[in-house]
Model the fold of this input.
Amino acid sequence: MPLSTQSQAEDEQYVLVASLDNARNLSNILRAIAFKDHAIFSATPNGLKVTVEDCKCLQANAFIQAEIFQEFTIKEDLVGFQVNLTVLLDCLNIFGGSTVPGVSTALRMCYRGYGYPLTLFLEEGGVVTVCKINTQEPEEPIDFDFCSANVTNKVILLSESLKEAFSELDMTSEVLQITMSPSQPYFRLSTFGNSGNAHYDYPKDSEMMELFRCTQTQTNRYKMSLLKPSTKALALSCKVSVRTDSRGFLSLQYLVRNDDGQICFVEYYCCPDEEVED
Amino acid sequence: VVTTISKLTKMCVLRLTPDNLFFVLSGKVANGGVSMWCELSQLSVYPPSMQANFFDEYQMEGVSSEDNEICLEVTPENLSRALKTVQSAKTVKVKLTKKHCPCLTIAAELPTLSSVSRVVTHDVPVDVIPRRLWHEFKEPSMPDFDVSIYLPPLKTMKNVVDRMKNLSNFLVMEANLNGEMNLKIETDLVSVTTHFRDLGNPPWGDDASQDGGPSQRDLEAMAQARVDIRKLQQFLMGQQVNPSKAMCNIVHESVVHLILLHEDVSLQYFIPAVA
Done:
C-alpha cells in the first residue's frame, strides 16, 4: 500500500493532510518540546504549531511552516486537536530511526476532523506502517501575553556559547537567575547550588552576541526544573533569542535547521519564580 | 550459537547424541510456555572438503548402547562467558568431567608472546538429567500450521517490535499464503499495523490447500496469533548473525513457530498465543 497511490476520493474526507519525505524533520523538532505527554496541535494554512504546557508556568511551541512539508493541504482555517505526544513520537520512529545515509522514513499525516483519530502512514524500504492515534478535544493554550511592545531586554546569541553554559549548570540550584542590563554584567546566568554560586557572563561585544538591545537592568529567577526541557531545543538550534518583558516573563526563541537545511522555530515562555522578589 | 541461546533462556538442556548437539527448552509455565529447540549437526551436510565440522574430535558415549545420548542441564550464560574468553585460543577442548559435581570443562590453549602457551581451564557446572526425564526433551514435531511464510529482514522486525513494545504488551502476528505478514497492536490510545509484503512462502506451505489447490481467496486468508511482545522481542534480540533462512509458521490462534537456519545450525522457537 504505497503512500502515493492513495486515491483522490480517500483524500476528500481528510481535513488536514501533511506529507514529509523524511519524518525526522518532524520528529526531531517535536522531541525538543516533548517534556509532557500531551500536545496541542494547531494547523493553519501557514503550517503546523505544536504546543506543550507545564503547570501553567511554562509553554513550549514548535512551528513547522507549510513549506517544510512536501504536501500540506488544509480544508479549514484552523484545525486543532490534542494527542499523546509520547505515542506520536514512538510512531514516527517506528522503524527505529536508522542512521543509514539515504534511508529515511516517509510520512503522511492525515486527520479527518473532530472525533477522528490522527492517522499516520509511515514507509521505509517498502514496508508500510499505519498508526491511528486517538485525539482529544484541544485545550486552549495559555496566552502569555508576551508582545514585542513590552519587551524590555533582548539578546540574540549563537547557541554554541549557551550550550556550554547549560551543560555545566549546577543542577542542585533550584533556580536559574538571568540578569540583563545595558551596563555590566550585560548578560549573566547565575545558579545557587550546594557547591556554591556560579555566574556565566556574556559581554555585549562578544562575538557570540549577535544582537544586544537592553534598555533596563533586570534580574529574574526562573525555576530550574521548568527550564531544563529547553536544553533539548538548545541542542538542536544554531541561534537563540532571549527576551524579557516588563513583568519579568522570559521568552526563549530557538532557530532550528532540520536535516534538509530548512528553518523551523521553537519557543519557550516561562513565568518568573514568584517567591523571590528582587 | 551459545550466546544467542543465552539471550533466549536462563536454563536449558544440552542433549548430546553421536551425530548432533541439541539445546532444548521445553514449554513449561515457568518460561511463559515458550519452547525452543536448537540443533547443531556434528556431521556436516556438506562434503568434508567444503566445510569443517564443529569439532575436530568428537567422542561421546551415552548411558548405554541403546540410549546413546547424554542430557545435561546447563546455564547457557555461564557456557557463553567461558567460551568468550577462549575465542582467540589455538585449540579448545570440551570435556564432561566430574569434579565436586559434574562439569563441562573447557580447556583452552591461548597464544602468548613467549613460545610457551598458556592453558586456561573453565569448569561450567551442569546437572545430569536422568534417563526417565529424557522424553521431555524430544525433538518437537512440526505443528499442523495454517500458514508458513518467510520472515522479513530480522533487523526491520526488531526495530518495529522494539517501538511497539513501548505502546502495548501484546502483539498480533498474522500472515497469509500470499507472502503478506502484518504485525498489529491495539490499545486505548493507539492502533499500529506494520505491513510486510512480497515475503514469499516456503514450498511446504501448500498443505492447507483443498482439492484443486488454494484459490485466490484462500491465499489471502490470514492466520493470526496474539503473543506477548516481550517473548517476540527476546527472540529478535538474540539474533547475532543473519540466518540463511528465516521462517514462521502460524497455527491460527494457537502458536507461532519461528525457524532459523544457518549453515549447520537450526533454531526453532515456539511462542504460544494468548487470549
Residues 43-53, 205-213 of chain B have pLDDT under 50 and may be disordered. The first strand of chain B starts at residue 12 and ends at 16. The interface with chain A takes residues 152, 156, 158-160, 162-164, 166-167, 188-198 of chain B (CB under 8 Å). Chain B has five helices and 16 strands.
